[in-house]
Specification:
CATH architecture: Sandwich
Largest sheet: 6 strands, mixed
Organism: Roseobacter sinensis
Number of helices: 2
Number of domains: 1
InterPro entries: SoxY, SoxY_sf, TAT_signal
Strand content: 35-45%
CATH topology: Immunoglobulin-like
Oligomer: single chain
Structural class: alpha+beta
Protein name: Thiosulfate oxidation carrier protein SoxY
CATH superfamily: SoxY domain
Order of helices and strands: HHEEEEEEEEE
Keywords: Signal
Radius of gyration: 18 Å
Shape: globular
Helix content: 10-25%
CATH class: Mainly Beta
Length: 141
């Protein structure tokens, strides 16, 4: 059996589909509520238990430093409801993780309340929010 261009394209497309490659194409269709519901997986969300460190005013929405920490968490989620793509970051921690924290820079489209959620090993989910005033938006919105 000869390998034709068509056969190669079909098998390559099937491989990418099986790996979940096209999933990111619909990331902007996910609402903040859907991202939070998927992360919580039916658990009740309680306030507190998460430390969210951000400046209250971001002069440049292209590079906003953020740090999220939750002692003992198995996963952290950052959500920006006013961004074109609402879920910003997801970090999972294994049993050997020394600290459960995430420090990075994110983009913010406009002034909004950024949410940080932590899923604990017992299945509970904790949440904290912080308002950030964005002077120059960073998502082209």
């Amino acid at each position: 059996m000869a390998i034709t261009r068509r056969r190669m394209l079909v098998s390559g497309s099937a491989t990418l589909l099986a790996l979940g490659f096209p999933g990111h194409l619909w990331a902007d269709d996910i609402t903040a509520a859907q991202a939070i519901a998927a992360f919580a997986n039916g658990a009740e969300i309680t306030p507190g238990g998460v430390i969210l460190t951000m400046e209250p005013v971001a002069e440049d929405g292209f590079r906003v430093p953020i740090r999220v920490a939750a002692e003992g968490a198995e996963a952290l989620l950052i959500v920006a409801p006013e961004n074109p793509v609402k879920p910003i970051a997801l970090a999972r921690f294994g049993p050997r993780a020394v600290e459960q924290q995430l420090a990075t820079r994110i983009r913010l489209a406009r002034t909004q309340e950024v949410l940080a959620l932590a899923r604990m090993p017992d299945g509970t989910v904790r949440q904290v929010a912080q308002a950030v005033d964005v002077v120059v938006g960073g998502c082209g919105a």
